[in-house]
Amino acid sequence: MRILLVDSDHTASASLIQILRTNGLAVDHTASGREALEIMRHYQYDAVIIELTLDDIEGYTVIRDARLARISTPILVLTNLSRPQAKIKAFALGADDYLTRPFDTAELIARLQAILRRSHGLSAAQIVVGPLMIDLNAKQALVNGDPVHLTGKEYAILELLALRRGSVLTKDAFLNHLYGGIDEPEMKIIDVFICKLRRKLQQKGAGSLVTTVWGRGYILREEPVMTKATPHQAMSSLSA
């Protein structure tokens, strides 16, 4: 999961970034509300965490303008403002959740996972595609109950494919998800990650769930793509 953190308090931001990364989340940070809006227009995030008191414009304004621009990224407000009016205003403008400081780390992570599930129409923290099951909480993939040992980047790619299963994702989408526009490697690295991911899934018996759409990108299909049998294999099957 890739998070955009919008907070002008650099000390608080540094601490929160460490917490989020320790929990396996990729984080980009900006102290500017205006810059946050520009970033949200050009890059896709799984969620945005925003403080309402920013140096340039109010967090309320960021939420309102994001929704007016039809940016549907889930927004979690994390703020020192605890009065009910602040919460009501944030929800009215389009925030998805609201948490006040000081906060419990486990609750923050749980709330992020919950709004991620809701944004993708999921009722539970698991995604099942054929023999493949992805546990969003444990950040683990299993095939027929058997764990698939993936690197962080491989899991991030698989999670993104699963959350948007049935949709073709471009290599640019993967690069943005993995690196967020910062120190991005060459695009061919995505082919390498996909190749390794496919091999590991196939070794566990998941077939060809991750398939290539030539000239466009990759897709996680609901069912494995079956390869056509050769004439010799077909005759052998009939005679068996």
UniProtKB/TrEMBL annotation:
GO BP term, example: regulation of DNA-templated transcription
Positions of the DNA-binding region: 124-222
Keywords: DNA-binding, Phosphoprotein, Transcription, Transcription regulation, Two-component regulatory system
Top-rank lineage group of the source organism: Bacteria
An MF annotation (GO) of this entry: transcription cis-regulatory region binding
Gene3D superfamilies in the cross-refs: 3.40.50.2300, Winged helix-like DNA-binding domain superfamily/Winged helix DNA-binding domain
Chain segments annotated as transmembrane: none
Signal peptide: none
Boundaries of every Response regulatory domain copy: 2-116
OmpR/PhoB-type domain mapped to chain residues: 124-222
GO terms for cellular component: cytosol; protein-DNA complex
Pfam families in the cross-refs: Response_reg, Trans_reg_C
CDD domains attached to this UniProt entry: trans_reg_C
PANTHER family according to UniProt: REGULATOR OF RPOS
Name of this protein: Two component transcriptional regulator cell cycle CtrA
